[in-house]
Specification:
This protein is α+β, with helices and mostly antiparallel strands. The protein has helices at 2-7, 14-54, 62-65, 175-182, 219-248, 253-268, 273-285; strands at 80-87, 93-100, 103-114, 119-128, 147-155, 169-170, 191-199. The chain starts with a helix and ends with a helix.
């Protein structure tokens, strides 16, 4: 037993403790990164579950989901709301720099005044840029007169500093800014809606927003990869220890016998395809 321990005495050198410390630090970093990926995976699962739960729920009045005009509750994202009243097409604006696929264009934001006087902003969909890139050639108008609308709730966007837009356009759907531009009062400024349906049905309408693609993403596989990386660090350390052990004890009779046994086993095993190919190449060269 003492002889066996003596052969491994080199492992008590400071450099090996340094290597062990590096492996531990690397493993901790990998575990933390794996936990982050597990968290991202859970966020994706939660977001997908929210869409599945809300997307086809029964439409209700905005006031049933938004306690105040400035309210937005994330748990109601994608929930349909039902509106009765009429569009205010004269106050309609365009949201610039919106892409559908790889195509640049605009989203059409139109205020809708409900029969109780409340104003709810409806994103009626996407239109492409026109012959002039600063505006579309044609924007399908909303229905005139009394209308019934169903839209899915989205949160008001944050203003990004430094972005500008020409008259009649905005860079973000920031509802307080939009309400001020349109000179409308009693408006919902925490949430707006993506148009799902409208009646009466107009001859044409902007391209409707698509349902989000429910993809779990690569986060779970990345999490397991980081765990494997952590284990690989210790595996590499063990391999390096073993190699130095063999080098230091190469003339030990016991280790010489073990090396000879490994050679015999290697000769007994069937050759790999690569070894067969190397032998064929060598034979051909001779």
């Amino acid at each position: 037993m003492r002889d066996a321990l003596a052969k491994w005495r080199f492992a008590a050198q400071r450099r090996w403790f340094t290597y062990l410390g590096m492996a531990v630090v690397f493993a901790v970093a990998c575990v933390l990164l794996s936990q982050w990926q597990f968290g991202r995976n859970q966020e994706t699962i939660t977001a997908n579950s929210l869409v599945n739960h809300n997307y086809n729920a029964t439409a209700v009045a905005p006031s049933a989901l938004l306690p105040t005009k400035a309210s937005y509750l994330h748990k109601y994202e994608w929930r349909p709301v039902s509106l009765a009243g009429e569009y205010l097409p004269s106050k309609q604006i365009l949201v610039r720099d919106r892409v559908l696929g790889n195509n640049p264009g605009f989203e059409v934001l139109t205020p809708f005044r409900e029969s109780n006087g409340d104003v709810f902003f409806v994103d009626r969909g996407w239109v492409p840029i026109g012959s002039k890139q600063t505006a579309p050639d044609f924007v399908p108008p909303p229905p005139t007169g009394p209308a019934q609308v169903t839209a899915r709730i989205q949160q008001s966007e944050t203003v990004l500093p430094g972005r500008v837009a020409p008259a009649g356009q905005v860079s973000e759907i920031n509802l307080p800014t939009v309400a001020s531009m349109m000179h409308v009062t009693n408006a919902y400024t925490g949430a707006y809606g993506l148009l799902a349906s409208e009646s009466p049905k107009p001859p044409s309408r902007p391209i409707a927003a698509a349902k989000p693609i429910l993809d779990s993403g690569p986060f779970l596989s990345y999490a397991f990869q980081w765990i494997l990386f952590a284990l690989a660090g210790f595996t590499g350390l063990g391999w390096a220890l073993r190699q130095e052990y063999l080098a230091r004890n190469a003339d030990d009779p016991v280790e010489m016998d073990r090396a000879a046994e490994r050679d015999r086993r290697a000769r007994r095993r069937a050759p790999t395809d690569a070894e067969i190919e190397d032998a064929q190449i060598a034979e051909a060269q001779r």
